[in-house]
Design a protein that fits this description.
Blueprint (H helix, E strand, L loop, with lengths): L1 E5 L11 H6 L1 H14 L3 H7 L2 H5 L1 H19 L3 H4 L2 E4 L3 H8 L5 H18 L5 E7 L3 H12 L4 E8 L2 E7 H10 L7 E4 L12 H12 L9 E3 L6 E2 L2 H13 L4 H10 L4 E5 L4 H8 L4 E5 L2 H10 L1
Parallel strand pairs: 1-2, 1-9, 2-7, 9-10
Antiparallel strand pairs: 3-5, 3-6, 4-5, 7-8
Helix pairs in contact: 2-5, 2-8, 5-7, 5-8, 5-15, 7-8, 8-11, 9-10, 11-12
Amino acid sequence: MRAFIFPGQGSQSVGMGKALADASKDARAVFEEVDEALGQNLARLMAEGPAEELTLTENAQPAIMANAVAALRASGIDLQAKADFVAGHSLGEYSALYAAGTFDLATAARLLKTRGQAMQAAVPVGEGAMAALLGADLAIAQAICDAAAEGEICTVANDNDPSQVVISGHRTAIGRALELAKDKGAKRAILLPVSAPFHCPLMKPAAEAMQQALAGAAMEPPAVSLYANVTAAPVDSPDTIRELLVEQVTGMVRWRESVANMAAAGVTHFVEFGGKVLGPMVKRIAPEVEVTSVIAMEDIDALVKAI
């Protein structure tokens, strides 16, 4: 069995997608469709920068999706014939849902633009923060959050793999967590260079914005089941997917459990489109599975031959 997976924020970089667009008219068409849907030249920003503008959440989210979708589209692979499940990390769920036919490309791009703007606007700059806890599992991370909160928000945002958990909340609480981390069992704690505290209750205004945006979005049942971030379980109903995408804005990304559950369901091969971020996590969660990362045309050619 095979799962197609799609990366989330942090996988953006200046130059992303350019070689793919130069080599594949199908990839190029993806970037043109996204540009048209958003009314901006996102493809040029992806290719040329500046990095500060590309990193803005409202640009990074649709850019990462477009890059992943371009890699998939350039492959010409029939997802329904070659994949048993799809999954994405945070915004990567929108890429996965496009791949599975739930959203069309323009809808996915516009939803991610809205999502990025709403998440950025939810918390004034400087009030929130996120940190990565390395060498820490979920239980250690939760203990750190509980000790650091002191009446503020300090919660687990991403349970990425058995040795990497990301926390999110008020900047002062995250600061306390950084100081407590080693004493509580983490090997390292690193403040992340993000502009807002994603996947925590401070994102409630963004969740409300996405509830409204998703209510008006056309959705079809996915061609293959999506393993949802907030449940780590397969889902097929558009109405349920809509609810989970809203919940995901403030909820924990249960990536470790999602991968473990897919492996337990029989998935032996994970294919990451548009990045090399999720692959290492997958191997730390399920060392026995095969992982393929697809970014460049040579990756695509090798994948098409292999499957």
